[in-house]
Amino acid sequence: MPSCCCIKNKPVRSANSSWGAEPPRSPRGEPRPAGTAAMDIEKVNSMDFGEFVDVFGNVIERCPLIAAAVWSQRPFSGLEDLEKHFFAFIDALPPSGQEGILRCHPDLAGRELLRGALTAESLREQSGAGLTSLGAAERLRLAELNAQYRARFGFPFVLAARLRGREAVPRELARRLQCPPAQELRAALAEVKKIGRLRLADLLAGHPAPR
Amino acid sequence: MPSCCCIKNKPVRSANSSWGAEPPRSPRGEPRPAGTAAMDIEKVNSMDFGEFVDVFGNVIERCPLIAAAVWSQRPFSGLEDLEKHFFAFIDALPPSGQEGILRCHPDLAGRELLRGALTAESLREQSGAGLTSLGAAERLRLAELNAQYRARFGFPFVLAARLRGREAVPRELARRLQCPPAQELRAALAEVKKIGRLRLADLLAGHPAPR
């Protein structure tokens, strides 16, 4: 029986994605070994769809469907090619589907963080941006802004937190809260892509994380 | 702070979805109360996107993106209308996206079941079909057929198991293994819709599960 849905005991390690559970589980629900090891594109191209979704299923937050669709486009010539297919899938969706992607994201410094329900990638990113160590007043301020943003746009505020400091987050949130909805949808999707680019770069060897 | 992403302590109960973790968690990673209570369409239409994705995020297996996109189409007139929007989203995807949906499904009586990594809905369905109590020979036979199917079509065999007995599963698998790929993609998506219809019917009051 081929191992189509689990990469345990194989040399390729996952991004240690989690749907908020311990121990970490892949987007297909498989337990995963901790830690991340880089891989080259030949290894990526040799993956069956189960392995591919396990490894890349959270490149777009909580949207393993997108990685599962991108697998159809293999072989990939490299990181940029792989990234191109993820982004092309996002761009081809109708606006409701693009908003759907955003709605699969957690708030920054929000309820999911407080409850330990973030994916491993999101926790790492929010932690790296200092959002896990906010004071009560900062958290409250962000919660208020997040709520206003959700009420205005119908999706949560998404920002590539790794590329910003904790001070920039409420400032950027307050600024984007004033944008026209169509412009803001584009801005939010651009952040989704920045996050995806960084997560992909983490998974592939020899590619520095682009800023 | 509005409760946009959690239905805990609210009258509407979720389908107790799980990404394979205990305690059960929603598609957005929130812990969920156990059990399922029915709801009417007015309640559905009053949900913010966080609640909606928590409740309907696994109508299409491990594809909360689809529920999150469908929320844009509210208000819904009833179960059929809600179902129509889920199915329209699936139908509008390119073939790679439709295959992506299939690739988010587990094998029947496969690795995810053995490891306790099924979603709550999938476990209930496979259990109801008797697939959790197969003998070793039956499991091996299914595993072989599942592997052949995956190798031939590039996605796992999907069947609305609740509508079939355990004897029908390997028979149907062996039959569909012989189908032309384009026909089989259509057949598999029809099964995804049957599963989605049953899951939606479970969540709404007064609607018998259509067969």
From TrEMBL, chains A, B:
It comes from the Eukaryota. The keyword Lyase applies. It catalyses: 5-hydroxy-2-oxo-4-ureido-2,5-dihydro-1H-imidazole-5-carboxylate + H(+) = (S)-allantoin + CO2. One of its GO terms (molecular function) is 2-oxo-4-hydroxy-4-carboxy-5-ureidoimidazoline decarboxylase activity. GO terms for cellular component: peroxisome. It is found in: Peroxisome. Pathway: Purine metabolism; urate degradation; (S)-allantoin from urate: step 3/3. Keywords: Decarboxylase, Lyase, Peroxisome, Purine metabolism. Residues 13-34 are annotated as: Disordered. One of its GO terms (biological process) is deoxyinosine catabolic process. InterPro entries: OHCU_decarboxylase, OHCU_decarboxylase-1, OHCU_decarboxylase_sf. Belongs to the OHCU decarboxylase family. Pfam families: OHCU_decarbox. This is 2-oxo-4-hydroxy-4-carboxy-5-ureidoimidazoline decarboxylase. Catalyzes the stereoselective decarboxylation of 2-oxo-4-hydroxy-4-carboxy-5-ureidoimidazoline (OHCU) to (S)-allantoin. NCBIfam families: UHCUDC.
